[in-house]
Amino acid sequence: MSDYDVSRFEEKIITLTPPPSENQVIFMWVSLVLGVLIGFLGSFGGTGRLIPGHPMHRVMVFAFDKVYGPFLNGNSDGDGSSAGLRMFVGLGEFAAGLGLIVGSVMYKFNIGGESLNDLNAALQLVAAIGLMCACLSAGALHKYVDSKDASKANVPFFVAIVCMVFIAIRMFILGPYIFTNQVIATVGGSSMLMIMFIAIVINNTKGLHESEVEAASEELKQIMDGKA
């Protein structure tokens, strides 16, 4: 009896997270597919804001300098704040996207062991919440700025919904299980939501009305359609 008790005690020591159930294994595959999908979209969009020569770069530079920047914070064209905003968003999207791609693969195939993968699960939550906030903000921005063609908001809103599904799976089904990592996920995710809230406050207190960027928005549409 004592030997049986000791073996159970040793198993508890070396097993930090519970073994996955059959349903959890299925959701691991779903999480892998969704994580790679939103990770690719996030990293592709992020590099488009950062790297000259990217198919999106010229459009993104004009959009942030002439439309999105002034609409969000009322900045003057050329004062540098729009470039800073574009780089901040681009770096965030690229880092979150790359992290989701690598993290989803590592988690599904248990690369790095259970301790690292539980931390990985927490960081995936933070990354997905960050991308969700970016997409919700982008969708709302398009609803206001591109009111004549509100369909531009459909893609970011769709990606935000996919992020929500991914977040729900990771939060309620796949962990993290270790308390420290749960705190990391909570604090990190809350920070992403706080950044979005701060952006909303800045937009409402300093940003320009959509009518003030309407001409630039029309020019942006011409560039996106290849007519300028």
Topology:
Blueprint: H1 2-14, H2 22-50, H3 57-73, H4 81-108, H5 113-145, H6 154-172, H7 179-206, H8 214-224
Helix pairs in contact: 2-4, 2-6, 3-4, 3-8, 4-5, 5-6, 5-7
List keywords for this structure.
228 residues, mainly alpha
What does this structure look like?
This protein has one domain. 78% of the residues lie in helices and 0% in strands. It has helices at 2-14, 22-50, 57-73, 81-108, 113-145, 154-172, 179-206, 214-224. Helix 3 (57-73) crosses helix 4. The chain is elongated and about 60 Å long. The model is unreliable at 6-14 (pLDDT under 50).
Helix/strand/pairing class, anyone? mainly alpha
Element-by-element helix/strand order: HHHHHHHH
Low-confidence stretches: 6-14
Mean pLDDT rating: 87
Strand portion: under 5%
How far the N terminus sits from the C terminus, by CA atoms, comes to 81 Å
Q: State the helicity in percent bands.
A: over 70%
Cα-atom Rg, whole angstroms? 21 Å
Largest sheet: none
Number of domains: 1
Structure in a nutshell:
The protein has 228 residues and is mainly α.
